[in-house]
Amino acid sequence: MNQKIKKLLAKYRCLPGKVFSYNASTKTITYIPELLETDDGLLAFLHEIAHLQLNHFSYKYDVELLGIEVEAWELTKKLAQEMKIKINENHIRECLRSYDCWISKRAACPKCGAYSLQRTQNVFGCFVCDCYWKVNDRKDREVRKKIFPKKSG
Ligand SMILES: [Zn+2]
Ligand SMILES: [Zn+2]
To answer: Domain-by-domain residue ranges, the chain?
Structure first.
């Protein structure tokens, strides 16, 4: 294994698991051990390191998430260059596109399809037809929307 990656694994709180992820409240990185033998896996690991080094915390609005992801990928590329790990630009683009797609789906009004405003972390409201809906927040699952009646008064 890449010596610099070994150092990172020892330096930070890293746990083997089934996903690459970063938990901001415990500052713990989860990684898939067998994928650390592949360039894409190393890139995914460095991406989580980037979130940690940038001190990223939870976000409230979806637009913030995209900004956070772009920033994390910028640092990921820098780290990868330093470690001479191959950068797969397509993989990075795919990741950002999937977030973009997820965000657009959540914001599309279930009644009229208009692009709507996020009111709180999981509530959206449409300007066009006054429809309100709640969304689930799992990024790795299908987007689900539940319409609810707007409180009168
Ligand atoms: Zn990320
Ligand atoms: Zn609408």
So the answer is: 3-107, 109-153
